[in-house]
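Field guide to reading this record: the first block holds the primary sequence, the second block holds the structure written as discrete tokens, and the final block holds curator observations. Each block starts with its own label. This record concerns CHAP domain-containing protein, catalogued under organism Nocardia flavorosea.

BLOCK 1 — SEQUENCE
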Amino acid sequence: MRSRPARRATIAWCALVAVLAAVLGGCALPGSGDGIVGDRLTEFPAVDRSALTSAQARIVDAAAAEFAAPRSGPGYSEGATEPWCANFVSWVFRAAGRPLVNPNSGSWRIPGVYTLQEYFQSQGRFVPFRPDYRPATGEVILYGPDSRFGQHTNIVLVSENGILTTIGGNEDDEVHIERWNPAATADIAIVGYGRL
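BLOCK 2 — STRUCTURE
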């Protein structure tokens, strides 16, 4: 049996841990901003549409509509219950009047990230990752399986001074927007980009 001072020390230690947990519990890790890789935004960002092509503007508009009234994963996947980040990208492009074409089925929906990469490669619109490449609004980012996302994809809304604002589906099983710096993010494993 523990002595009374030992029990008091244990209780004091537990109380200190509880106080620290209460104080720090609402804080995210430095730089995470409660997002997967950066600051998670709760409002759609301001996008300077005057600098966009009509295709870019339509993608931003379609993405904004989905952010305002998001569906569940099967809503982007024609009812299929599956990882849906690539389905979200397919949906946004279709809603923007720029439907993708699945190289295997001919469907507008491309459910897999690797198949999405194959699509962009077949169209001559794939840019392999380079640290100096700056994706434009409406371009698609493709991440490898060893990324902190796992194999994943999302859409660039804003690219400014090396900081990206992206929208993606199936990010914590929801549609999310994050602002982040790829150069300052470890384990991101970007494979490349799909251009418009």
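BLOCK 3 — OBSERVATIONS
Residues 48 and 158 are 9 Å apart (CA to CA).
Confidence is low (pLDDT under 50) at residues 6-33.
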